[in-house]
UniProtKB/TrEMBL annotation:
Keywords: mRNA processing, mRNA splicing, Nucleus, Repeat, Ribonucleoprotein. Transmembrane segments: none annotated. This is Small nuclear ribonucleoprotein Sm D1. Residues 19-91 form the Sm domain. Plays a role in pre-mRNA splicing as a core component of the spliceosomal U1, U2, U4 and U5 small nuclear ribonucleoproteins (snRNPs), the building blocks of the spliceosome. Involved in splicing regulation. Facilitates post-transcriptional gene silencing (PTGS) by limiting the degradation of transgene aberrant RNAs by the RNA quality control (RQC) machinery, thus favoring their entry into cytoplasmic siRNA bodies where they can trigger PTGS. Does not participate in the production of small RNAs. Its main location: nucleus.
Amino acid sequence: MVAFAGYEPTTPVHNFKMKLVRFLMKLTNETVSIELKNGTILNGTITAVDMQMNTHLKTVKMTVKGREPVPLETLSIRGNNIRYYILPDSLPLDTLLIDDSTKPKQKKKEADRGRGRGRGRGRGRGRGRGAARGF
């Protein structure tokens, strides 16, 4: 079962197939806290999240473990350095967790015909030494 701290879904979860990154990409303009693997805590407004979970923030307060907070105008974090996101309580999770991305349509089987190893065009297969020169 998928669960977020303090969140009880109103819809059945067995149809849940949304990827975490797709959810995070919808959090643009939300103010969040992010804890990094090295213990640093970031408070800021998300401007973008990409497919590798790289997160771009604005108006950031960065608190390195054991130091005073440092204000920053913008900051980008590589996705693999993020331990977790702390989301605001006011976030409408029911609407954000709906996967509204369109799935690519499957091609018809006939559209793939005619491709393969390149046979059937040009002069054909080799005919031995020097035969393809056109003598």
